[in-house]
Specification:
- By secondary structure, the chain is an alpha+beta fold.
- Helices cover 33% and strands 31% of the residues.
- It contains four helices and four strands.
- It has helices at residues 3-14, 17-27, 38-47, 50-66, and strands at 81-92, 101-108, 115-132, 135-144.
- Strands 1, 2, 3 and 4 form a four-stranded antiparallel beta sheet that branches.
- It is extended and about 60 Å long.
- The two termini are 31 Å apart.
């Protein structure tokens, strides 16, 4: 699927009545009829300081806790469920930055029977997510980076 088609699908997915209503409440614009196109949102977010986005995420979750929105999802009425997991977010055929992780695969060429290797470069992130019913909310993210070009894991 091409990037243009993926962006269009994302725009259509978020331009549903419930999502528009929720974003309108968050923005204080109850009359919001449609969300901006994905490219507009992406352009805006690319200019926002990542530390500010992190602060907004934390403030939103604190506000939901303060309003006791998730109390019914506590474990044994007392504990919060947190899942911590690493996940890949991008892969590349060539190293594109100094932070790329690297993985080398060995394989046998089906046509020649020759042993070969293929290197892929990727970016991974470690996520901590709060479990609330059938939803998970990201509470912290940490990008995983190689310490040096000789690091393998």
């Amino acid at each position: 699927m091409g990037m243009r088609k993926e962006k269009l699908e994302m725009t259509n997915e978020f331009n549903k009545e419930e999502c528009i209503k929720n974003v309108g409440k968050w923005l204080g614009n109850e009359d919001l009829e449609e969300l901006p196109h994905y490219d507009t949102i992406n352009d805006f977010l690319s200019r926002v300081n990542p530390a500010e986005l992190e602060r907004i995420r934390i403030d939103m979750i604190k506000e939901l806790f303060k309003k006791r929105n998730f109390d019914s999802h506590r474990i044994n009425g007392k504990y919060w469920g947190i899942v911590i997991d690493g996940t890949g977010i991008f892969t590349f055929d060539k190293k594109h930055c100094e932070h790329c992780l690297r993985q080398v695969y060995k394989y046998t060429d089906k046509e020649t029977g020759e042993e070969k290797t293929k290197t892929i470069y990727m970016h991974h992130v470690l996520e901590a997510k709060l479990i609330v019913g059938n939803m998970v909310l990201s509470v912290a993210s940490e990008f995983i980076e190689n310490e040096s070009d000789t690091a393998f894991k």
